[in-house]
Amino acid sequence: MSESVLVTVLISIKIGILATVFNIPIAVIISYFMGRYNFKGKQIIDGIINLPLVLPPVTTGYILILIFGKYGIIGSLLFNLTGIRIAFTQTAAVISSMVVSFPLIVRSIRISIEMIDQKLEVASMTLGANKIETFIRITTPLILPGLISGFILGFARSMGEFGATITFAGNIEGETRTIPLSVYSLLQVPGRENSAALLVVISVLISFLAMFGSSVINKKLSSWRVKQ
To answer: Alpha-carbon distance 96 to 15, whole Å?
Structure first.
């Protein structure tokens, strides 16, 4: 394995993990409120959350540039105040992956929350626990399978992200060039097909191991619940 291929793989894993770790807390909070409460505009918020699933990835990337670019709504303010530039950096690659994978994480966690018998949470609160304690002690253990599935799906989606990343973060070798971007770049160069094929194989293996690990963990959690 060449050094460039190794760097690409490590960058992809790093971006995938960071994007998913940052997404999980936000996804849990939003999933809880979307799954537990009815309010005006809920369908609109639900549509906004799931918009990246149907938007062309390049469009998503362009919207991110309009928001976080040097002359964007937030990006210009940040640049003028601190001199920090987000677009075409590794941070931009993480944000791109977060946006496109977020709906999948929310769906997994929200389904788990909606399947919980709310009587268990009510019983906890009648015994003196507040909402936060109930969420930590009762809700969180019950939604662990959804959390794990969401994490794996989010990570896998981040690993495969292409359109939004190349638009918002660019295709910078050693910085934002992830496995999909590297495969694309290598296929443009005659004689580099073997390196592209190697990256494809590595990508498939990482995704398979992630899904397999998720399945094993969820099975063990199910067995643990039965014993409890």
So the answer is: 10
Residues 6+ apart with CB under 8 A from 68: 74, 75, 78, 86, 87, 92, 95, 168
pTM of the model: 0.89
Q: What is the DSSP letter of 115?
A: T
Range(s) of the domain holding residue 132: 3-227
| Average pLDDT value for residue range 63-86 | 91
- Cβ contacts of 3 within 8 Å, gap of 6 or more: none
Domain count, the chain: 1
Burial class (CB in 10 A: 0-12, 13-18, 19+), 129: middle
Helices (H), ranges, the chain: 3-36, 42-54, 57-68, 75-82, 90-114, 118-126, 131-134, 140-142, 144-159, 163-168, 179-187, 193-227
Q: What is the CATH number of the domain that holds 200?
A: 1.10.3720.10
Check residue 222 and give its pLDDT: 64
Give the tokens for residue 136: 């930590």
What is the model's pLDDT at position 112? 87
